[in-house]
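On clarity, I found the account of how folds are encoded harder to follow than it need be. Since the whole study asks how a given chain folds, the encoding of that fold should be made plain. For the editor and my fellow referees, an illustration may be useful. An entry of this sort, consisting of the sequence and the corresponding backbone structure tokens, reads as follows:

:::
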Amino acid sequence: MAEEKMSRRDFLLYAMGGWAAVGAGAVLYAMYKTWEPLPEVKAQATVKFDLSTVQPGEIKVVSWRGKPVFILRRTSDMGGCDKRTVAGEYTVVLGICTHLGCIPNWIPEEKVWHCPCHGGRYDACGKNIFGPPPRPLDIPPFKLEGTTIVLGEEGPEYKKLIQG
């Protein structure tokens, strides 16, 4: 058996193919690192909050992914919320108006959220009751662990509310 000698043309072809493969690998790695979430974003992916710290009629604001989340412990005079209640007595909604993205203010005397930009109003359940907002305040994904709510994870309670 005679050994075949590699021609110069074949050698250059293999060398260029190898360099192209290394370059393609470097480009793919750079793309992966660009698309990977930053550590700050990963850290805010889930937020835990103890619901038992909220008194009846009180509202707490929690930051989740840089957005405000309103947690309101409703009282009996605020009425019931069909398909928008967490743990039987809490309203948990993103604090961003569904009209133009403003942050509504809670008015405890009237028991409503009022959006100062265009006069939109939401009741204690987060349902739009007046003005230009096209839909109720959004409910963030959550999971319940006893009296602790974990924002950012879809638990069975959240899926039940959404499927409603």
